[in-house]
Amino acid sequence: MRSAQILQTTQTDQAFLARIAADADREAAAILPLLLASRQESSARAGMPHRTAMSHLLGLVTVFTSPESGLHGSRQLVDPMIGCLERLEQLQGPDGLFGGDNLSSPPDSAFTINDACLAVQLLRAQGGESGIRTGAGSRGAGSEGAGSEGAGSKSAAVLQEIEARLWQIIAKITPALVEGGVHTPNHRWELCAALAQIHSLDPRPEIDRRIDEWLAEGIDQLPDGMYSERSPLYASAVTNPSLLIIADSSGRPELLDHVRKNLEAFLPWFNPDGTVESVFSRRQDQWLDFGGAGFLLPYRRLAIQDGRSDFAAAAGWLAGFPLLEPAKLLAQTKVQPGLAGVLTQGQEPVPQEQNEQVQQGQKQRGQVQMPSVLQPARAALGSCATYRFRQGETAVTVFGGGDHSASGVASGLSNNPTFLRFRHGNSVLSDVRLTRNFFNLGPFRSMGTVAEGEDVRLHERVEASFYLPLPAERRREDGIYEQSHEGRFSAAMDFAGRPAVQHWLRTEVTVAVNGHQADVDITFDGAHTSFALELTFRSGGVLEGVEEVSEGVYQLVASMGRYSVGGDVIEFGPGSAADPDTPPVYNAGENYTYLRGTNASEGTKVYITGRTSGTRRLTLRGTGATAGAAAVGP
User: How far apart are CA 191 and CA 183, in angstroms?
Assistant: First the structure.
């Protein structure tokens, strides 16, 4: 078997460890009432999926066995732990796999088994030394009464039972994981991580061979460091953690290079509120304000292992936000103590002069100070056609990397039509989108993106046709033709065999960034129709200079508008006169509307409307607090 444990133990950061333990206690205390109820009510227990049951079990085992925890040895945890274990046994199928959204799914089951293997490692490391705590000295919520004879042996017996039954679950599922398949890129690495952990606990040649087969496909990493799904969610929750596990558990340290490259790629894409940019994702997080807490442990791990100041700065900053799954984080530090090591101090570069305003503004708003390494003046992800420009508290993100597919909108594609985001301090313009009244083809999505300095050009050409009668040789006497798709809709019309009259519209968007200002020039050519430019602001601020259309919806009909949160202001405009022929509405496109779906953004919306002729400019500017007309509260 290959060697394991790449990260060596270092001096422990006691403050960090105490923070994790305290948060893990709060996490456990929050789920205890639900788990106690599930022991008494079969309906409550029946609603607990396998991944949830295992996650709860891992969390409870962790605090139960951790001396740093206020719930260490608490007898109140015993019944809930056994209840979670029973639920797992109930849900495991005859083939060893678990059900859920995907029936008998090897990769979905692998998520549960990875947690199960972590729990087994934790229990084996304990060696049955943890005793059930009783008496006045215990801080555990479940500790009660005076000390009792044999408490330690009872605790050891409980932990031994949990370990034995968990191992039975793992042993039962192992053949199915070795033989099973996947259906998304990241599933391969989650499955390999589970196999690697099983192999480290009980080495078998067939497991190692299967890992080699999956890895032989190559890690799906793009040249700029993104994985093929371009998703911060799956990078932080699946691919990076899985590659770390495989590297450690099966002695493949070369996999760490992929994690390093991905972490480097994400450094410039964090926001002051702790989120990370996800507009370029091909998965469901493309619609979310996605929190970056899942990146904490990989940054911390490689900062300590490699002595990297940039990763240390990122890890230290992320630790200032709420922790993600703190009980699991505590378990990982127990199994691999080096993860709780002390980050090298004094390695953060002196902030550049252009970042001093940012640092001061964040302090005044009570935010965690963002390290300069996370906010370079420029950043680009070539594979995602995404560009970011920063000046002080202003950040402009331009996105032109959406996927275009004959299948239209689909899972696994980048479908988000947002092409611009503009932040100034706490004021956030989260989505700028453009729709045109053109055959219900939906919003602008760039088909090509070119960046030159601070300018980014996006362009799209959309087409639609009216179809003429079929030529004689294509006609059928029965009038029944093959059902086919012509790009917008499907019908039994033999579209490919018909002559057509084509209509087209070309749209070019140029974003020119100059410090705290971005000028967006939109040029149209082709069909003459109406357009609506939709600006969606994160809710909670104050609008000025706009007219209300409906609740939460406004229109800018003249001059410049303002959106402010405290002293942070985004000026935008100019507006256009209201015209019933250019309605202030967003059209998601027939791919969505026919199925009564939507891709609408969430927040306070302002529309600027017009006609598709010539060039129209939108100016966005970040400023300080300004006095103006009476405010309109969104």
Answer: 11
